[in-house]
Amino acid sequence: MFETQKIYKTYEQIALRIREAIASGELKVGERLPPEAELARQFGVSRPTVREALKVLEALNVLESSTGPAGGTYVKELDYLGVADYLKDSLRLLLSVEVVTLEDLISAREAIEIPAVGQAALKRNQDDLHALLKTLEEGEAKDFDALISDLPFHRAIAVASKNQIFSLFMSSIHMTVQTLTRRYVMPEAKETSQAQHWKIYEAILNGNKEEAEVQMKEHLHFAYHEVYQQAIPRRESFKGTGLS
Amino acid sequence: MFETQKIYKTYEQIALRIREAIASGELKVGERLPPEAELARQFGVSRPTVREALKVLEALNVLESSTGPAGGTYVKELDYLGVADYLKDSLRLLLSVEVVTLEDLISAREAIEIPAVGQAALKRNQDDLHALLKTLEEGEAKDFDALISDLPFHRAIAVASKNQIFSLFMSSIHMTVQTLTRRYVMPEAKETSQAQHWKIYEAILNGNKEEAEVQMKEHLHFAYHEVYQQAIPRRESFKGTGLS
DNA sequence: CTAATGCTATTTGTTTGACAAAAGTGGCCT
DNA sequence: AGGCCACTTTTGTCAAACAAATAGCATTAG
Question: Fewest beta carbons less than 10 Å away: which of A68, A86, A130, B87?
């Protein structure tokens, strides 16, 4: 058995070294990297090579750049939002080639959100309850879109669960589902959905894990049958992009 | 309220257009893009700019390049493995800045794997059972590492669940946990773990969803207490990378 | 004295052109 | 026929310059 060692290209090595510098704490979040020209000098490569490495790390949500004297390249704060965004795009692509289905998304959502709401019921604090209440009130206000008002509430639950992995998975799945469903749903569906939100909130307020999980399950099943069942796959057309 | 529209840089626009071409089916998986020089001509930009766009898409696991006449840039096949790899790296970074903890990973794993094994018990077919059996036998054979032999079994369960989102989430979490835990565990722990694997397999074989879930829960709790509890955060030292 | 305005320096963004390296392809020599 | 070598295509890297954006500073007008 021959170990075929991966040969890294120069720009990959640079990207790797910068990533290691971040992982090791040598470069901290928010810190500014030397200018590209200086980096090129330090690494002993040309600026385009450094730039390719930087672009890779920007794509991976690790760095961000801007022009100007106060600009430059900075180590981006690492939160789950950037990752969720990438995950959403990937899921959408996986969906488009049909290796995952809407049903898969729904059942993954159930797998995540039911334990999440259980944890939320146990770990919620005053801030969480306040945040949840706020999303509920705002949900009452805007009567036009049940799906849009759905996300903040569920997001707040994930936050209350104190597990950012739940937030991450939940957000990406929810965003993916949203790109697939109509922006418009029946007013009655919205009312039922909102009433269920209140029940879930009550269970969380009371710290009742089991009740919260039961209510969430019911809510998700309702959402699936009444809303997502009528989901219409968005047909996309991006002709004429200039590629042969 | 002023709508501050995002200004895209040239290379971002190029990356976007290529992505759209893929999403719309204009560029299919496995297809070869024109050479960089030709792309530059078509888009009316310079080659370095095109390259930066391509590097971004390579980083996002959408394209891959190689040199030579038969080389060039190809649209990469989209499977969950590449995404899982990215997710693993991200989780590891999130872990390093302590926005997620080992406990978060464990509880997310439970959230995913218990429903996954339930689905597997319902949907498994002959191929799945055969694959599971194979991982079990191989697990018996190699006596050196319980953690390594753990992954294939759990992966096979995710496959049997017929939901690639479970596979994706499970793999990334499992890989992340692995980078944190000792490579070495007690032989007794390994034996218990293997015995639990067999019980899970039996439940899946019998199509007994509830039993499979119960056994999995027990297995995960055991793994957590007996194995991961003694996890030692890997201290990394990447000094002298040449960054000031 | 203050506030607006424009200048300047710094840094990323983009272009041009060239050469290096890798890797199939085909022909030539044995 | 088989192996070796040169050629061709394509990505990878380098170099030097200019363009664009932007923050800070100085200058000037009110």
Answer: A68
> Cβ(A233)–Cβ(A180) under 8 Å?
yes
**H-type alpha helices, B44-100:** 47-59, 80-96
Whether residues A95 and A144 share a domain: the answer is yes
Measure B69 CA to C30 C1' (Å).
Answer: 28
The pLDDT profile of chain B, 244 residues, written as one tens digit per residue, is 445 567 899 999 999 999 999 988 899 999 999 999 999 999 999 999 999 999 999 999 999 999 999 999 999 998 888 899 889 988 988 888 888 988 899 999 999 999 999 999 999 999 999 999 999 988 777 655 555 568 899 999 999 999 999 999 999 999 898 877 755 556 677 788 889 999 999 999 999 999 999 999 999 998 877 765 555 444 444 344 443 3
Question: Is the Cβ atom of A66 within 7 Å of strand D at any atom?
Answer: yes
DSSP state of B73: E
| Residue bearing tokens 């993954």 | A108
B209, part of any domain: yes
Check B164 against A100: CB less than 8 A apart.
yes
What distance in Å separates the CA atoms of residue B201 and residue B187, rounded to the nearest whole number? 21
- The residue type of A167 is S
What element of type H or E holds B74? strand B72-75
Write down the H helix ranges in chain A: 10-23, 36-43, 47-59, 80-96, 102-123, 126-141, 146-160, 164-180, 187-205, 209-222
Number of inter-chain CB pairs under 8 A, A vs B: 179
Residues A97 and A196 in one domain: yes
B23: nearest CB among A43, A55, A236: A236
Q: Given A83, A114, A238, which is nearest B20 (Cβ)? A: A238
| Residues ≥6 apart with Cβ < 8 Å to B75 | B22, B27, B28, B29, B30, B31, B33, B62, B63
The amino acid occupying position B54 is: L
Domain at A213, CATH number: 1.20.120.530
B144 is written with which tokens?
């050196």
Asked whether residue B7, judged by its CB, lies under 7 Å from any atom of the DNA or RNA strand C, the reply is no
Kindly tell me the burial class for residue A39, based on how many C-beta atoms sit within 10 Å of its own C-beta (0-12, 13-18, 19 or more): buried
A34: domain range? 10-75
Residues A15 and A133 in one domain: no
Whichever domain contains B42, its CATH number is 1.10.10.10
Q: Are B116 and B163 in contact (CB under 8 A)?
A: yes
Q: Are residues B180 and B162 in the same domain?
A: yes
**Number of domains present in the structure of chain B:** 2
Evaluate if the CB of A68 falls below 7 Å from strand D. Answer: yes
- Nucleotide C25: nearest residue by CA–C1'? B69
Question: Is B204 inside a domain boundary?
Answer: yes
